[in-house]
Amino acid sequence: MEKEFNDTGVCVPSRHYMVNTSDKIKSIIQLIEKGKYFTISRPRQFGKTTTLQLLSSQLNLIDKYLTLNISFEGTGDSFFANEQVFCPGLLRIIARTLRFSNPEIYEYLLPASRQVHNFEELSQFISQYVLEMNKHVVLFIDEVDKSSDNQIFLHFLGMLRNKYLLRDTGRDYTFHSVILAGVHDIKTLKAKIRPDDDRKYNSPWNIAADFNVDLSFAPHEIETMLEDYSRKKNIVPDIAAIAEKLYYYTSGYPWLVSKLCKFIDEDIAAKREEKNWTTDDIETAFKMITDESYTSTLFDSLAKNLENNRKLYDLVSRISINGASFPFTISDPVISLGSLYGILVPAEQGRCRIHNRIFEQRIYAHIMSRLLQTRYAELDNFGIPEFYTDKGLDIKMIMLRFQAFMKEHYSKKDARFLECEGRLLFLSYLRPIINGKGFDFKEPNVSDERRMDIVITYRDQRFVIELKIWHGQKYHEKGLKQLSNYLDMYSLKQGYLLIYDFNQNKEYRQEQIVFEDKEIFAVWV
């Protein structure tokens, strides 16, 4: 069977191109060797199930270990009705997972499930089972989120906790290690079950060790997958440059890395004679995955998590649309929720940022679509064809028309309104112009100038527009220098500057500026 890049379900080394995560697996096994109980809490499609499978395979190669793997996927609500249903059901699930790999244990567990009816009997069975096995029995529980709306699972964790404490004092036998995997950690599971209970932070899993293994893919790890692919396809791409570009857009989010590679392999390189990958292929794949007509369960989940949490929606909107800056304070409930869903991560300066550039673009498109239908519906009705020429997109004309639009419709608005809405107005104005023909991408740079750069890609053209607030000539010179440096990143000699001037005697003007070796077209509104 020919290998492929996987974007559904668990990754299998013999069938899929995979990143070499052996260092991560070794780090997790070190926790298991110490007999730790812990939770792998990561966002959806972040490689949790694949990690558990790789862990289990590695441990089963060591004679002293026996792994039991279960998942609550597809169990249904009735499974958690009461302990009389849950306890025997748990043993049946474990037995089924061992039916083909270890039939002897399967034959042992299946009849035992008919003799266990409550937590006390389950606890006694676990003690006897571990004692008889004379091995380090490790329990993996995947999809713990499926148990998030009931109390029975928390009672089960409480039982495991008590046995763990007794084990460490020599008064019981129990699992050597227990690993839970899901989007939620146990604290947020409990908060979900009893949102108004002051005791919700008294977790039955407070024995858990910290899990700090980074499951995202670093560029050098992405290279290992590309090397495997290149050998199989007999090509010689610039692997290091491509891996860096993949990381640039995904920040190492596992599913996003695999999906971009799958697009290139099956939809981009496959349609041309030259099969070698280039960094331009990453750009094309980025356009494909951020196209608003493309859907996936991950992006559906991303939109749902925003729509179902108004405070999170507002916070993310202010970051992604207005370039606002907030400290990444994980104890803040809204920021913690954004982190849990993989939307927010800390930047180097300790500020909140959107996890990756693909999420930024998808979130931006989602929010702007709603705004265009409500607050700025009138922006969708103007002559778009004038913004296109034989050479491509006419950014100067777009900026001049926006200037005229602002002068006509918003000249009487107060400065406070424009300072809050100015960037949003331009993005809303810009969106229907490039929709379906190109894409805009924002790079927020929070400083005393509160700037936000917009990168527009149209065909083989790239344009950089910087938005800033007028604070006088000194800051203006500094802004020109920053824009010049930013243009260097893209090897561009032309740039654009949209300046919001809130002075009472402001002048709606434009200026062609030569700065260093750049030509910058500036418009004041």
From TrEMBL:
InterPro entries: GxxExxY, P-loop_NTPase. Keywords: Endonuclease, Hydrolase, Nuclease. One of its GO terms (molecular function) is endonuclease activity. Pfam families: AAA_35, PDDEXK_3. This is PD-(D/E)XK endonuclease-like domain-containing protein.
